[in-house]
Amino acid sequence: MEEQNVERRLAAILAADVVGYSRLMEVDEAGTLARLKTIRLELIDPAIAKCKGRIIKTTGDGMLVEFQSVTEAVRCAVEFQQSMARRNRDMPASRCLLYRIGINLGDVIVEGSDIFGDGVNLAARLESISEAGGICISAAVRDQVGDKVNIGYEDLGEQQLKNISRPIHVFKILLDAQTSETRSQGFASPPLASARKPSIAVLPFVNMSGDPEQEFFADGLTEDIITELSRFRELLVISRNAVFTHKGKPVKAREVAREFGVDYVVEGSVRKVTDRVRVTIQLIDGETETHIWAERYDRKLEDICNSGRSHVSDCRDAVRSRGSGPARSGPA
After folding, report:
1. Start-end of H helices in the chain
2. What is the distance between the alpha carbons of residues 171 and 58, in angstroms, rounded to a whole number?
3. All domains in the chain, ordered by first residue
4. What confidence tens digit (pLDDT) does each residue in 17-52 have?
5. Which candidate in 65, 136, 204, 210 could, as Cys together with 14 as Cys, close a disulfide (CB 3.0–4.6 Å)?
6. Are residues 105 and 138 in contact, defined by beta-carbon separation less than 8 angstroms?
């Protein structure tokens, strides 16, 4: 009778976790947690929402996600791993985060908002044998997806997975043209120092006018600067949603740089009196907390937007003068 009342359904299950999580936490606990939060905000949640997935549960280093479409589950995993690969190319090796992903299509038991069963366990086991930055899938997933997603497959044959009595036919998704040696190691070759993009986070500008209504003006100016800096392909710029989590909070540039894994931090303030606006901007070395460049701009309100691009160009030029990474001497 109890078995008859059990709710079951067919679902595509994605299991993911961070490679070397314990080691990363031991080395830099606060920084690792902050980077995971940023990745979730900027990459994971948007990818899952786009592919109509549902997060079942999260752990410190991983998550379990359910999809109604197995094709969308694979598409989500591929887009996420490709985005992480691009992000890691612009980061120092010590700040790279790599995920393993496993996907299975199977029958699951539903209890409230949670799911259980062999279909879930198999996804977790597929994740455990995936290489760092890679995706392993069951044969059921391979058969259903076929050529619907622009990827390749490598047949790994039948694998004996932990706590699974029967052998499972496993495929590895081929994301790019990496060599077999690089894929087997699970790490992309680190970029040359000269090729790595300088990275920058623009903190929300502080409203110094004492008028709460000017908060919108200060936030808008911050967003404009982030947008303009993002137009320069030689810069890696942290998104607006990520940096605005620090709005109104007293933070140190070194802490922000460590959280977002950036070389530089931009801070600023806005003071508006009648039709005049004063904007101050500081570009700070994220490691040494020294000021690389600072400027003050006094403009009429009608001119401030027109002069915005010159502020951004000045900031970009200051970063260029320092090369791809922060210098270790005093301010320029």
Report:
1. 21-27, 29-39, 45-50, 70-89, 118-129, 139-145, 180-185, 215-230, 240-243, 253-260, 301-320
2. 25
3. 7-191 (3.30.70.1230), 194-320 (3.40.50.10610)
4. 998 887 777 777 888 888 888 888 989 999 999 999
5. 65
6. yes
